[in-house]
Design a protein that fits this description.
Elements: E1 26-30, E2 35-39, H1 43-49, H2 52-63, E3 76-79, E4 94-99, E5 106-111, H3 115-121, E6 126-130, E7 137-142, E8 145-150, H4 159-170, E9 175-178, H5 181-184, E10 192-196, E11 199-205, H6 210-216, E12 219-225, H7 237-253, H8 263-267, H9 272-278, H10 300-306, E13 308-310, E14 324-327, E15 334-337, H11 341-346, H12 356-369, H13 373-388, H14 401-413, H15 416-422, H16 426-432, E16 441-442, E17 445-446, H17 456-464, H18 477-480, H19 496-513, H20 525-536, H21 542-561, H22 575-578, H23 589-603, H24 613-618
Parallel strand pairs: 1-6, 7-12
Antiparallel strand pairs: 1-2, 3-4, 3-6, 4-5, 7-8, 9-10, 9-12, 10-11, 13-14, 14-15, 16-17
Length: 622
C-alpha cells in the first residue's frame, strides 16, 4: 500500500524566498508498509492556507475525497502553524484534520496545552498518517525524524495509563497525543487526548470523532520529544517584539482575559454558566428546557469554592483558564483536568446532573476513555429522552449519575446493545431508535451549550458550520453576550449574517496560525497581521486575513460539497423552531431562510448553498 504525494516541489514566488516560522518538514507515514517520507513545505500553499486547519484542509482536499472515514485510505493529518511554539501569546494549539466518522464531512479537532509546540520543536510542521497498521503502534517524533514503535503493550490501556507508560519509557519530557479505549473500539465520538508534565490531567482534540480515525489505523498515539533549540526566530525581531508587547498589553487589560482579574482567569470558562442560564439560553434535559434550576451549583464560581485544585495554563498563555479538579473521597473520587464550560453543561444541565462533583467525575471518565464530552452529553441526553418515551429498553432517568457512568464505560468498549448504539453518536442513535428529532445536532454533530432560540447568531453559526453544530466556527456569543468585537442583541436576526461571516473568516485564519481563539477577545485583525507579518517576514493586511479566512472556509465547504453537502444540510433541529424557550423565544423559520439566502449571496454561493466553480477559482482553491 502506498500513499499519494501532495508536496511535490518547492515554489518560490517572486516576493518571497523563505517564510519564517515553519520547520519546512511534513512527515508522510505509510502505516501499512511502515514507510516514512519527509517532504518540504509548499510555500505557495503556505502563503494561501497558512498552516494548521487551512493547510491540513488543503492536504485533505487533495487526498481524502471519497474515502470512507474509517478506511485505511482516509488520511489523519496532524498539523501546527507558523506561530505555534513561538513567543506569540497562546501559540499552543495542535489540530487533527480528517473526514469525520461521526458526520461524513470535514473534520478539524483542536487541542491546547503543549502538544502543538512539542511537535513543532520535534522538527515538524505536521504528520500525515495514511494506511493502517496490522498491529498496534505508536509514533515517536524527535530531532526531525519519526520512528514507528510497537504499542501492543499500550493497546487497551486508558489514556491516563498509556501516558504513564510513555513517560516511564521516554522520560518526563515526553508529550503524548493519543487515544483511549473509545478510539480503539471505533466509537464515533472518540477524541484524541494530550498529556504532558505540564498537563498531567489531560486535554482533548474533542470534536468530530478523530480518535476513531486514529484507532482505525491501529495507532495508540504520538509521542513528541521537543528540542527548545529548534524554536523558530522571528524574521523581524524588533517588529515582532513591538507587536508582541502590544498584544500582551491588550490581553492583560481586557476584562475577559486579564490574568488574575478577568473572568476566564479567576473562574475558568465555567464563568459562563450563570450568565447563559440567566438569559434562558442554557439547553437543559436535551434542550426540552432552557434554564437549569441547579446551574449555580455547577458554575465556575462554585467549582472554584469546592473542588478546584489548581489552575494550570497552556504554552505561552497568561490567562490560565484551565481548571484541575479533585474530589478526595466518596464514589466520585478522582483527579482530572477540567471540567470546562462545555463539559459542565453537556454532563450537567443537558442530562439533568446538578452537582459539580458528579459532573467532574463524568468528565474524568470521558478523559479516561477518550470521549468528546460535548457529543457524550448529547448522546446520553438522547438516550434519557428515548427512555422517557419508551423507545429504549434501558431505564435511564434524568440526573442518574451512576447510570450515566455505566453507559460511558459501555460506550467506550461498545459493550452490549446499548453500548454499540451510543458509540455511534447522538444523531445516529436517535435515527436507529426511529426518532431522529431527539438529536440536537446539525450534520450529525451535536450542539454545544448555547440555545439558538435565544442566541440567533449562534443558530446561524450552527446551521452553516462546515463541521456541524459548533460554537467555534463563528463564536457569535462574543458579540451577543460579551460585546466583542461589538455588541448585538441576541434576540435580533438583524446583522447576524455579517457578524457570522466576519467571525468565521477571522477564526479560520487564527486556527491556521495555529493559536488559541480566546486571544480574539482582546486582539484584532490588526494585531494578528502584525504578529504574522513580523514573525514570518510576509507582509499581510487586515483585508488579507479576511481573504485567507474566506479561502480556508470555502475550501472546507467545497470538500463537504464533494460528499453530497448542500442547503438541505444547513438546518437546525426542529425543536428550536417548534418548542419555545423558558423566556418564550423560538427560532422563526422564515427569518432563518432569509438569513440563509443572505449568507449564500454574500459568500458567492448559489441558492442551494453550493460553491460555484467561478468562486472556487477566484479564491485560488481550484
Amino acid at each position: 500500500m502506498s500513499f499519494k504525494r501532495f508536496y511535490i516541489s518547492i515554489v518560490h514566488p517572486d516576493n518571497v524566498t523563505k517564510i519564517n516560522g515553519y520547520m519546512n518538514k511534513i512527515a508522510w507515514v505509510d502505516l501499512y508498509e511502515k514507510k516514512i517520507e519527509y517532504q518540504e513545505l509548499d510555500e505557495e500553499d503556505a502563503l494561501k492556507f497558512i498552516g494548521g486547519r487551512g493547510l491540513g484542509g488543503r492536504i485533505l482536499l487533495k487526498n481524502g475525497v471519497g474515502k470512507d472515514p474509517l478506511s485505511p485510505e482516509n488520511p489523519l493529518i496532524i498539523m501546527t502553524g507558523p506561530l505555534t511554539g513561538t513567543d506569540t501569546p497562546m501559540s499552543n494549539r495542535i489540530v487533527s484534520v480528517t473526514r469525520s466518522p461521526l458526520t461524513g464531512f470535514f473534520a478539524d479537532s483542536h487541542c491546547g496545552g503543549y502538544a502543538g509546540p512539542a511537535l513543532k520543536l520535534a522538527g515538524f510542521d505536521g504528520i500525515v498518517l495514511t494506511g493502517a497498521s496490522e498491529k498496534p503502534v505508536h509514533l515517536v517524533a524527535r530531532n526531525g525524524e519519526i520512528t514507528i514503535e510497537d504499542a501492543r503493550g499500550l493497546w487497551g490501556k486508558t489514556t491516563f495509563d498509556a501516558y504513564q507508560s510513555i513517560k516511564r519509557k521516554y522520560g518526563a519530557a515526553a508529550v503524548f497525543y493519543g487515544i483511549g479505549p473509545a478510539g480503539e473500539n471505533l466509537a464515533r465520538l472518540a477524541n484524541i487526548m494530550h498529556f504532558s508534565r505540564f498537563a498531567p490531567g489531560g486535554r482533548a482534540s474533542g470534536r468530530c470523532g478523530t480518535g476513531a480515525v486514529m484507532g482505525s489505523k491501529k495507532v495508540k498515539g504520538l509521542v513528541f520529544l521537543a528540542d527548545i533549540k529548534k524554536k523558530p526566530a522571528p524574521a523581524n525581531r524588533n517588529g515582532f517584539a513591538k507587536a508582541l508587547a502590544t498584544a500582551l498589553k491588550k490581553i492583560r487589560e481586557n476584562a475577559v482575559t486579564s490574568p488574575g482579574k478577568g473572568g476566564l482567569s479567576v473562574y475558568g470558562t465555567g464563568v459562563l454558566v450563570n450568565v447563559i442560564n440567566e438569559l434562558s439560553g442554557y439547553p437543559t434535559r436535551n434542550a426540552k428546557e432552557t434554564r437549569f434550576e441547579n446551574a449555580y451549583y455547577t458554575s465556575g464560581e462554585n467549582l472554584r469554592g469546592t473542588i478546584l485544585r489548581k489552575t494550570p495554563t497552556c504554552y505561552q498563555c497568561p490567562v490560565s483558564c484551565k481548571r484541575e479538579s479533585e474530589v478526595k473521597d466518596g464514589k466520585f473520587k478522582h483527579r482530572s483536568e477540567g471540567p470546562e464550560y462545555e463539559s459542565i453543561w453537556a454532563l450537567g444541565a443537558m442530562i439533568g446532573v446538578g452537582h459539580i462533583e458528579a459532573i467532574s467525575y463524568l468528565n474524568y471518565l470521558a478523559n479516561l476513555y477518550g470521549i468528546d464530552t460535548i457529543e457524550l452529553g448529547n448522546t446520553l441526553a438522547v438516550a434519557a429522552e428515548a427512555s422517557e418515551r419508551g423507545l429504549l429498553k434501558e431505564k435511564i432517568a434524568w440526573g442518574d449519575v451512576d447510570k450515566y457512568a455505566e453507559l460511558v464505560r459501555k460506550l467506550a468498549y461498545r459493550e452490549g446493545e446499548v453500548g454499540n448504539l451510543l458509540a455511534e453518536g447522538g444523531a445516529a442513535a436517535a435515527e436507529k431508535l426511529g426518532a431522529p428529532e431527539l438529536s440536537m445536532s446539525v450534520k450529525g454533530l451535536s450542539i454545544p451549550a448555547y440555545d439558538p432560540r435565544v442566541f440567533k447568531g449562534m443558530g446561524l453559526t450552527y446551521a452553516t458550520s462546515n463541521r456541524g453544530a459548533c460554537h467555534l466556527r463563528a463564536y457569535a456569543i462574543s458579540s451577543e453576550v460579551l460585546g466583542v468585537p461589538y455588541k448585538t442583541d441576541p434576540l435580533s436576526y438583524d446583522g447576524k449574517v455579517d457578524l457570522v461571516i466576519s467571525l468565521e473568516r477571522l477564526f479560520a485564519f487564527v486556527d491556521s496560525l495555529t493559536v488559541c481563539k480566546f486571544g480574539t477577545f482582546a486582539l484584532t485583525r490588526e494585531d494578528y497581521a502584525a504578529l504574522y507579518s513580523t514573525f514570518t517576514g510576509v507582509e499581510i493586511t487586515e483585508d488579507d486575513i479576511d481573504k485567507i479566512g474566506e479561502r480556508i472556509w470555502t475550501q472546507e465547504r467545497y470538500f463537504n460539497q464533494l460528499h453530497g453537502f448542500s442547503r438541505k444540510d444547513d438546518r437546525l433541529p426542529k425543536r428550536f423552531f417548534e418548542e419555545r424557550s423558558a423566556s418564550g423565544e423560538i427560532y422563526d423559520r422564515e427569518a432563518f431562510e432569509r438569513m440563509l439566502d443572505e449568507y449564500y449571496q454574500k459568500h458567492k454561493y448559489n441558492s442551494e448553498g453550493t460553491v460555484p466553480e467561478e468562486t472556487l477559482r477566484e479564491l485560488g482553491i481550484l
